Amino acid sequence: MTHENETHSESEIQEDIVSVPLIAWLGGVSTILIIITVIVLMGVFYMTTANLDVQRQADADARVTEIEAQRAIDAMIVDGYYEHPGLDDGQGNVTRGTVSIPVAVGMKKVIEDAKR
């Protein structure tokens, strides 16, 4: 079986030759655009990651501060009594700390003292 349309004219061949540099140019431009897009996306990714790291560090610092505050409160509680530390005014004058107790414990103490 023979192909009847196998012959190509000179103009068709010339058009094919002209389109090769155009296709190569478009391929090169497309490659450059893809590379630029990848670089921009990497920059956006790293900036977003840096922002998330800063936020996570701030959250961790806040949790540490909360834990330190709770430990300070726990250190103030001794046998159900709250010890408030002494205060120093910076000139060597120290006010002694006070001790306060929960209302429920205080009421029990008053009742115990009344029974004596």
Outline the structure in words.
By secondary structure, this protein is mostly helical. The protein has two domains: 70 residues; 37 residues, no CATH class. The protein contains two helices and five strands; from the N terminus they run αβββββα.
SSE sequence, one letter per element:
HEEEEEH
**How large is the count of helical segments?**
2
For the largest sheet, list the strands in their spatial order. 1-2-5
When the domains are counted, the total is 2
Structural class, by secondary structure, is mainly alpha
Strand content: 5-15%
What percentage of residues falls in helices of 4 or more residues?
A: 55-70%
Q: Please compute the radius of gyration using only Cα atoms.
A: 41 Å
Mean pLDDT over all positions = 78
| Gap between N and C termini | 126 Å
Question: How many individual β-strands?
Answer: 5
**Gross geometry:** rod-shaped
Largest sheet: 3 strands, antiparallel
Identify the notable features of this structure and list them briefly:
69% helix; 2 domains; two-stranded antiparallel sheet; mainly alpha; 3-stranded antiparallel beta sheet; 116 residues
